[in-house]
From TrEMBL:
<protein>
    <recommendedName>
        <fullName>Glutamate decarboxylase 1</fullName>
    </recommendedName>
</protein>
<dbReference type="GO" id="GO:0048786">
    <property type="term" value="C:presynaptic active zone"/>
</dbReference>
<keyword id="KW-0210">Decarboxylase</keyword>
<dbReference type="InterPro" id="IPR015421">
    <property type="entry name" value="PyrdxlP-dep_Trfase_major"/>
</dbReference>
<feature type="modified residue" description="N6-(pyridoxal phosphate)lysine">
    <location>
        <position position="303"/>
    </location>
</feature>
<comment type="subunit">
    <text>Homodimer.</text>
</comment>
<dbReference type="InterPro" id="IPR015424">
    <property type="entry name" value="PyrdxlP-dep_Trfase"/>
</dbReference>
<dbReference type="GO" id="GO:0005737">
    <property type="term" value="C:cytoplasm"/>
</dbReference>
<dbReference type="GO" id="GO:0030170">
    <property type="term" value="F:pyridoxal phosphate binding"/>
</dbReference>
<dbReference type="Pfam" id="PF00282">
    <property type="entry name" value="Pyridoxal_deC"/>
</dbReference>
<keyword id="KW-0663">Pyridoxal phosphate</keyword>
<keyword id="KW-0456">Lyase</keyword>
<dbReference type="GO" id="GO:0009449">
    <property type="term" value="P:gamma-aminobutyric acid biosynthetic process"/>
</dbReference>
<dbReference type="InterPro" id="IPR002129">
    <property type="entry name" value="PyrdxlP-dep_de-COase"/>
</dbReference>
<comment type="similarity">
    <text>Belongs to the group II decarboxylase family.</text>
</comment>
<dbReference type="GO" id="GO:0004351">
    <property type="term" value="F:glutamate decarboxylase activity"/>
</dbReference>
Length: 492
């Protein structure tokens, strides 16, 4: 950048060059010939790479260097929008969502009061109402808030459930309360335990309810656990049902769980962070039948709906409870004598003070796609999962972790190298099979051609978990992945 320009031209030139860097990165992201990542170990990054240093300097660096830094930061990161990136439940790069994120950063305001974020607050209100309607709460005055991710949304559900039963918690603290017990399936997200740890309930007081072989909570087991807790003198408070588990993509039987929660007067929360997107499709929404009976719901549009990170909604059926539970009426923010309707000041409903605008990119995407556009997208993901499932059944070197068509986009499988196929099933073979996925993944990271995650589950040794939430992915990318796993694992 020439030093002869005045400040305004200088800034404009700088921003145009940044936009060039972003465009070139976006093009590479969608280019199947480019790598998903160019992997370097921590020590390499810390020691510095070809003119890219992470060190902070006392003196300002020239803008040329800042542009190099921008380029290199993207270069050595992971292209999560790449058609062959399958590592996390959130993937893909939606261009409208990206534009929304840019506008949000430019506006750079805070969601706590209508005073400084009038348009964004109105959008949040409209989106929450739309989500209430889709979950089946259309007729009632429900409530909610966008939070920094599903873990925090799940945390809200426990805070509010506890406050509803024991409002004295807010002033007296945990010493005023009996032994509270929470229930979640053994396949539920670890954030329920995290919430118990954070809130002083304790992880020992989260009871893991047994699941069937597909990873769904067994209602009979839930009821037995509730009765056992009561016999021990504990107070059952809350059940977290999962709609779309992290590993298997399983849906707990929500209607049966709702019956049990009603019978024993427990708060029913549905963690639909992953599976909530299915509510957008007429073909698959039946998998969440019963969700309309929940007291609260977590739903992450940054997962199946492909909204850029982060975008998570916490929905609560009872209006006013979120406010009562969290409000502290800070006088410098929430003055009661403002010129507008102060019920639109959302800050006192939340556990945060400052809150990022997560809603605009979702609103903009909804405008661009319409409800039907999201439906088409999500149906496509489920078709891809079905295609992979059928491919795995047809190939000799692969084995499904459980048989049965995928309900969501999770497909779990083992790759069995030729050397292991000669060994009979048993502890010895299992021990060796456990090492296969990590070894292939290590090679995969070094090659950088694709990324997929693996894990063990219960007594099952390491297996690959494939998921689809990336709009750029095609059937040819699935074929590529399976061939790549074979290529990297053939000689193990």
């Amino acid at each position: 950048i020439s030093g002869e320009m005045n400040g305004e031209e200088f800034t404009e030139q700088f921003l145009l060059e940044v936009v060039d860097i972003l465009f070139s990165y976006i093009k590479k992201t969608y280019d199947r010939k480019s790598k998903v990542l160019d992997f370097h170990h921590q020590h390499q990054l810390l020691e510095g790479l070809e003119g890219f240093s992470l060190e902070l300097s006392d003196q300002p660096q020239p803008l040329e260097q800042i542009l190099v830094d921008c380029r290199d930061t993207l270069k050595y990161g992971v292209k999560t929008g790449h058609p062959r990136y399958f590592n996390q439940l959130s993937s893909g790069l939606d261009i409208i969502g990206l534009a929304g994120e840019w506008l949000t950063a430019t506006a750079n305001t805070n969601m706590f009061t209508y005073e400084i974020a009038p348009v964004f607050i109105a959008m949040e209100d409209i989106l929450l109402k739309k989500m209430h309607e889709i979950t089946g709460w259309g007729e009632t005055e429900a409530d909610g808030v966008f939070s920094p991710g599903g873990t925090i949304s799940n945390l809200y559900s426990v805070i509010v459930a506890r406050y509803k039963r024991f409002p004295e918690i807010k002033t007296k603290g945990m010493t005023a309360l009996p032994d509270i017990t929470l229930f979640a399936s053994e396949h539920s997200h670890y954030s329920v335990k995290k919430a118990a740890a954070v809130l002083g309930i304790g992880t020992d007081n989260v009871i893991a309810v047994k699941c069937d072989e597909r990873g769904k909570m067994i209602p009979y087991e839930l009821e037995a656990n509730i009765l056992k807790a009561k016999r021990q003198g504990r107070v059952p408070l809350y059940v977290c049902a999962t709609a779309g588990t992290t590993v298997y993509g399983a849906f707990d039987p929500l209607a049966n769980i709702a019956d049990i929660c009603k019978k024993y007067d427990l708060w029913m929360h549905v963690d639909a962070a992953w599976g909530g997107g299915l509510l957008m499709t007429r073909k698959h929404s039946f998998k969440l039948n019963g969700i309309e009976r929940a007291n609260s719901i977590t739903w992450n549009p940054h997962k199946l709906m492909g909204v850029p990170l982060q975008c998570s909604a916490f929905l609560i059926h009872e209006k006013g409870l979120l406010q009562a539970c969290n409000q502290l009426r800070a006088e410098y923010l929430f003055q009661p004598d403002k010129l507008y309707d102060v019920t639109y000041d959302t800050g006192d409903k939340t556990i945060q003070c400052g809150r990022h605008v997560d809603v605009f990119k979702l609103w903009l995407m909804w405008r661009a796609k319409g409800t039907r556009g999201f439906e088409i997208l999500i149906n496509k993901f489920l078709e891809l999962a079905e295609y992979l499932y059928k491919e795995l059944k047809a190939r000799d070197n692969f084995e499904l972790v459980f048989d049965g068509e995928p309900e969501l986009t999770n497909v779990c499988f083992w790759y069995i190298p030729p050397s292991l196929r000669r060994i009979p099933r048993g502890p010895e073979q299992e021990k060796m099979l456990h090492q296969v996925a990590p070894k292939i993944k290590a090679r995969m990271i070094e090659e950088g051609t694709t990324l997929v995650s693996y894990q063990p589950q219960g007594d099952k040794v390491n297996f690959f978990r494939m998921i689809f939430s990336n709009p750029a992915t095609k059937k040819s990318d699935i074929d590529f992945l399976l061939e790549e796993i074979e290529r990297l694992g053939m000689d193990l």
